[in-house]
């Protein structure tokens, strides 16, 4: 079981700039907890994500020596990937691909076809440089724009990514509207059809629906979940009123109740919870 902690997702939509040293201190604390991966920053246009304009500076302040956690950074194009790949500390590059044409334009200013071409380039770059591409398949459980959506359409996109050699796909409930039955169906269909691909769940959810969504993912074969402490964040490109990320503390509780030993350092996690209140005050 893998938990990916997402401070980048928690921070990126905040209007007040978080000081670089504070960002680094928070991420350093997260690196002590025992998460599989920390989604720590992004190499995108400062105009699009001004909060993340200091990702390279934050990276320079991180203490990775005692941490087993891997680092993930989001990119939106080849140029961002080239910037990220200058840093050997970064293990994963994440790219947001959408089933929705409208959302793809809003999120990366590209058509779906153009975004797929970027994915192909990024996958080739990652193979050459020894990195791993994580493709986030946004609007993976519903579409608020009146465009076509079905579980079969999700599977069609997964098939395209499989042809490109992508090995990690995070199915994303971008607007927090996924029905547990659909979550289970989508994961089960794809985990069975593509056993060589690692499928993750990136859910946005109200607190009262977290358990049922996570458990639906588990029944479908998902063994990789994204979270953010206290459920901070959400996707600023999706809606005016955000539905937050899955709260990591709730995610841990659900997984442990379902029998998973996560190997987390609870004391360090408690310190991270305390620091989060300061960072996101």
TrEMBL record:
CDD domains: DRE_TIM_HMGL. Keywords: Lyase, Metal-binding. GO terms for biological process: ketone body biosynthetic process; L-leucine catabolic process. It comes from the Bacteria. One of its GO terms (molecular function) is hydroxymethylglutaryl-CoA lyase activity. Coiled coil: none annotated. Residues 1-270 form the Pyruvate carboxyltransferase domain. InterPro entries: Aldolase_TIM, HMGL, PYR_CT. Belongs to the HMG-CoA lyase family. This is Isopropylmalate/homocitrate/citramalate synthase.
């Amino acid at each position: 079981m893998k938990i990916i902690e997402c401070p980048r997702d928690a921070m990126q939509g905040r209007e007040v700039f978080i000081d670089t040293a504070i960002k680094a201190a928070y991420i350093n604390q997260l690196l002590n907890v025992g998460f599989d991966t920390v989604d720590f920053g992004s190499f995108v246009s400062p105009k699009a994500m001004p909060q993340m304009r200091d990702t390279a500076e934050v990276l320079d302040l991180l203490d990775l020596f005692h941490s087993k956690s891997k680092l993930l950074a989001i990119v939106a194009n080849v140029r961002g990937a080239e910037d990220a790949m200058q840093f050997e500390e970064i293990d994963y590059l994440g790219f947001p691909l959408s089933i929705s044409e409208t959302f793809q334009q809003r999120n990366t200013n590209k058509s779906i076809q153009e975004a797929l071409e970027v994915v192909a380039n990024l996958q080739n770059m990652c193979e050459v440089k020894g990195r791993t591409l994580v493709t986030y398949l946004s609007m993976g459980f519903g579409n608020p724009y009146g465009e076509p959506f079905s579980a079969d359409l999700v599977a069609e996109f997964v098939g395209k990514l499989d042809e490109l050699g992508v090995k990690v796909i995070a199915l994303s409930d971008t607007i927090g509207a996924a029905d547990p039955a659909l979550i289970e169906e989508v994961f089960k269909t794809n985990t069975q059809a593509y056993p060589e691909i690692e499928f993750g769940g990136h859910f946005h959810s109200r607190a009262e629906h977290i358990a049922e969504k996570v458990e639906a993912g588990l029944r479908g074969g998902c063994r990789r979940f994204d979270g953010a402490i206290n459920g901070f964040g959400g996707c600023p490109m999706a809606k005016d009123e955000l539905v937050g990320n899955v709260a990591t503390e709730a995610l841990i509780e659900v997984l442990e109740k379902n029998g998973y030993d996560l190997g987390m350092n609870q004391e360090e996690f408690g310190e991270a919870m305390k620091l989060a209140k300061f960072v996101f005050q």
